[in-house]
Amino acid sequence: MLIEEFLKLDIGKRFKVKINQAIDEVNRRGITDHSRRQQRLMKILDLYHVQQTILQRSLGPGRILKEPCEKCGGDVYCGFHEEGTFDSYYYFWHLCLNCLDADYAFSHIGQNQENEGDRNCPFCGEYNP
Q: Is the pTM of this model over 0.70?
């Protein structure tokens, strides 16, 4: 799948999930039993958050990692975005456009509180300048 196709993808329809209900369920209950259903919802929501982060901020998918996707062997993109004037908001993601596997993380760093390693991707450890 091309990045343009990914950005137009209706993730809820593709995975037969109502995104708003999934977000509400995860926010209300959290991850309680690590059931297959909860794990599936979390992966779908990671994919959704990656898509929305890229769309809302007009970003590219990130850089391609040397290591292929563990699930399908496709290319994995490692993305990073920083926002904020005083406090910093960091968005990290890994995305395979072949099998649509994704990981997403967000962190908030207070003003003048950035530490070494805060910009390292939590999934592969690579530094993001």
A: yes
